[in-house]
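new request in #modeling-help
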Amino acid sequence: MTYEFMVASAIGVLVGAGIYLALRARTFQVVLGLTLISYAVNLFLFASGRLVVGRPPIWDAGVSEYTDPLPQALVLTAIVITFGMTAFVVILALRSFLETGSDHVDGDKVPCDRQDGLGDAPQGDGGQETRL
Amino acid sequence: MAVALTLLTLVLLPFAAALAIALLHGSPRAVHSAIAGGASAGGLALLASLSGPALGGGAIPQASWSWVPALGLDLALIVDPLGWLFGLLILGIGLLVVIFAHAYLYKDEDTGRFFASLMLFQGAMLGIVIAGNVLLLLVFWEMTSLASFLLIGFWQHKAEARQGARMALAVTGGGGLALIGGMVLLGLAAGSFDLRAILASGDVVRASPLYPAILTLVLIGCFTKSAQFPFHFWLPHAMAAPSPVSAYLHSATMVKAGVFLLARLWPVLAGTELYTVTVTSVGLVTMILGAVVALFRHDLKSILAYSTISQLGMLVMLLGFSLEAAAMAAVLHILNHAAFKAALFMSAGIVEHETGTRDIRRLGGLATAMPITAVIATLAAASMAGLPPLGGFISKELMLYQTPKLALFGVAWLLPVLATLGATFSVAYSLRLALHLFFGRPREPEPFARAHDPGAGMWGGPALLTALAVLLGLVPMSLAAPLVAAATGAVTGGATPVVELALWHGLNLALALSLAAVIGGMLLMGLHHRLLAAWERAPLPDAKLLFDLVMRFADTWVRKAIVATHTPRLQIMLFVTFAVTALLVIDGAMSGGVLTGARTGIPASVPGIVAWVLLIGATAAVVNDSANRLRVLIYISVIGLVVSLAFVQFSAPDLALTQISVEVVTVLLLLLALNLLPKNPPNISSVPRKWADAGLAITGGLLVGGIAWAMLTRDPGPSIAAYHLANAKPGGGGTNVVNVILVDFRGFDTFGEIIVLGIAGLGIFALLDTAAIGAAGARLRAWRDEMPRSPERHPMMLVAASRIILPLTLMVGIFLFLRGHNQPGGGFIAALVVAIAFLVQYLAAGFDWSDARKPFGEHQLIGWGILAAWATGVGAMLLGADFLTSWFDYFSLPLIGKFELASAMLFDTGVFLTVVGAVILALAQLSHVSQRAARAAGTAEGGQP
């Protein structure tokens, strides 16, 4: 088994799991899905510099071979931005839950809950609140 | 150079004043009006210093700085006589309006916002009249639309103010769009966007096949701005603005912008059959329509609005004649109209201020109660009526004298007769305004009993303007003739004409027509009661209803289009998005080629395989166990850890450090959010949906994994890495190439990224700060903890340990920051570490304790961080280099030895501050909300708060 296979398969698994979770009906699962997809995307971008062992891009007079630093720089900011995005989406989900009393991705006014056969009552809310 | 500086100061002064007023928002209104008045007076002084060269026929003051040369956009300023004349109106009346507004606005009103918007408008308007580049003119043109939106809607609590502002923005903004098209075409036809070059190429433009399109688009822009038929309807609704705004925008400045542009482009556009017929007839129709409607309105400001429409129509008509003498009449009337109409709007404001109403049917006989106002307004109205010996008489005479020179539609008598008809109605509404307001008996006792003259602060401005209106009639030659002559020359682009202005021109046709208009106006006035009754019986179209109808129509169809192409269900939208993307990838993959490339792989080590198994297992667990949300967080952190390890293994120490610290922050964030979100909700997806989703997910995973595999088994193409590696040390002064790329080679990207992060932090703050009100607040207060908790709220061990850790962690952060340029570390990583150090305090000791001891505000950190990064870039520009060019050098100090100072360090400080601010802002706010909810729950249960 090579590292290349492991990284490629890990990216594939993360994307698959991310897509599945992003398609769920609950906001928190969508957030998890986006988090997994972000891992995969960052890994993928990083891998575009190819996998190189033991040659960090720290310049030294005695070293002539380095890994490609550019994807690393791009991924570094991407990781931080990913955090910003995740944080924003989580807070959006929280606010939507607080506003509507439901953590369904479409809020509680959309008929898809009913189509799923569960009625439009918000579920899982600790307080079992009714809509105001 | 001195001229260039004067011009730049002239146009920037109002904007600087607007900024200063906005910054001193909390100060008393005297501060706001003093800044605004000072800026206007200063602008007037600058303008006066330019009067010699601008009007003397010598070298026209102009200056130009290159802005976006690729687009032909220069910051070019030019003060020719026409621009000088308008600048005088804008700044002079601006100063009077500021004084008037200071007295007019009540103490508790938001004067900061008012004067800041007013100055913004002044700057934009001034920019229009002294712009020397048509693209620059467009920028200022749009700014006036926006500033007038803010000013018309100043009283935000009033529905009609909001609607009036929106309508004005829709009409003038829409016209602005047309104007952009017209100006771009004009620039293309003339071969330059420089105003002087365009004005010099009139023959080329008029011969161009683009001419009809240019003319149409430019005219739409001018007609919407100057409230010409059929776009006139927004102006009466803009009367919801405070009276000072109407006096400023709707008499002398904003509505004159269209007239100004017609005059400005006169040498290019005027003279053709198309131009003459279109502009003259639109102006004529507007003049008559406005005058007729004005006679039957009852709101003082509405009467003035329709009279403004009518007077603007007259100006447009005069410019449409394409005759030098008519242009001269227009220039003179611009002066006259500015004087009497601003005075009348202010008088209307005074009447409203002192009687409480603007309804002319409730007023009357005010001459005894407010004699000063009565004298001012009556004289101004007489000038509006065109009665001798006032300024309005001269310009109306000149207008009537010109009418027989143009046979509109081939009918010689059409223009004189219709123009006289318009003038007749002008006399009538002016008479009605003065007579019904100030003479006769009071119609209602209550407003009359309240009425009294205001202080000199309010009547001073209109008095001065009325005095000017009178003097323009009595001594026109010394007061106006040189200015009018020079400005007319600038309009026509030819030689400065000889201007003869006098009240008495001998017995001629114009005098006869003028006499007929006055007599007819008096007759109309006498019949006003009967005419009004007939008017009110007549079924008249209401422009506002039509406008609303159009808006509703557009709204309905946009909604229909959205519903037809969108679904409000996120799951379906995402499914389709993912599926289409997958299909595109499949389509690309079908084009052939083999999956596995020729590159030899690196054999994996046993620990590597273990980590891989952990990642796959944790990912599976996240999907499988996603209902138990707290456990999922553990799986997520395992994934993050393995990704960090992968970065370590594959020569990316910076990424590993970033990933591991982001991981900590993300898990903290999700934990805090889960505190309030449902923790173990039941699954609600149906089984078929799950299978469909799973099918798509597996396809997507295989495709992306396959692409990654195909990429990793091939050699990369030629890379720009070599450049970065070779130049990091000699060019950027650092050996950590990743960090040098971030703060130097691609510093502009990083600058954008920290701004995004800062905005995300502020957005989170906005979402959470308002969560305490409305439905969300009610739910927060009703929140009940569903988890068993430790009775000890802040465990002693954790609190003590966290306080010891804080300085240590801060030291690690500073260490990572300082070495970042040469070794793994840098602003991003240091910021995350420092943020974690503070977040641990919030975690251990609670929000209140930590927040009270926090030595900084997160908002300020974000702001200062972005400013620091920006200042680094601008610093380079000031030294003559490009934005964000870095600088470094080596110094040595005794004891410390040789060390390096780099401007990149300052930039990295900006990155550091912004990231710290955004991260702490997001998490601290979340913990604040949680703690609020927990406290409410604790109080409700009677437990310990």
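bot summary: The mean pLDDT of chain B is 88.
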